[in-house]
Amino acid sequence: MPDTNEETRRRRSIYLLPNAFTTANLFAGFYAVVQAMNGRFDVAAIAIFAAMVFDGMDGRVARLTNTQSAFGEQYDSLSDMTSFGVAPALVIYEWAMQDLGRWGWLAAFIYVVGAALRLARFNTRIATVDKRFFQGLPSPAAAALVAGFVWVAVDNKLNWPAASIAWVAFAVTVYAGVAMVSNAPFYSGKTFALGRSVPFWALLALVAVFVFISSDPPLMLFGLFIVYGLSGWVLMAWRWRRARQLKRRSVS
Fold this sequence. Notes:
Layout: H1 4-12, H2 16-37, H3 41-64, H4 70-97, H5 102-124, E1 133-135, H6 139-156, H7 162-180, E2 185-187, H8 200-215, H9 217-251
Antiparallel strand pairs: 1-2
InterPro entries: CDP-alcohol_PTase-I, CDP-diaglyc--ser_O-PTrfase, CDP-OH_P_trans, CDP-OH_PTrfase_TM_dom, CDP_ALCOHOL_P_TRANSF_CS
Catalytic activity: a CDP-1,2-diacyl-sn-glycerol + L-serine = a 1,2-diacyl-sn-glycero-3-phospho-L-serine + CMP + H(+)
Protein name: CDP-diacylglycerol--serine O-phosphatidyltransferase
């Protein structure tokens, strides 16, 4: 029989290693806001991508070292709200949407609300959902869409009129906010185990991905997250079509 007192003590504990990654995630989000205020939007976008890396590490480190805690879960959620909710909205608003007036800050607010609702829903359903898929676009991926657009536009200096860039930024921001609260299933990657052996070709594929991204980081990362941001709708349409086919077969 498990020691319930030991389990309760462990859940209430504060562990340094995973929470250090969470703190790095929070700092990167805060740093992105500061850099956006200083007009360094490419650095702000890179900081949001760095926050994604730290966010991906804290949970895996906690599971690998068996240092999960209720404190860590809440701290991670609050940090995610800053780095993937508030920070991307402020960065893209400061960069492109101020001239849209109320439409600009409304788009940014839709994104922030979507991130808050997404994180709240995730926290309340964490024990009941399918671990293989997220319900709705995860907030780090939504932040990558927004920050990726900022980064690719600033880095490649798109020769678009300012008004066009502003309205594209509006559309990307609203889409990311709405996608977070949708029911579309997005692959989570949680079934991938770091300690599990993989074939040699998987290592080669990983190297190819790094080479692919390093050829043009802003463009490649933005492209990858566009594909991921649309994958949930494709999967939902496929499931809907398959359900209709099964229903027709059962009726016939």
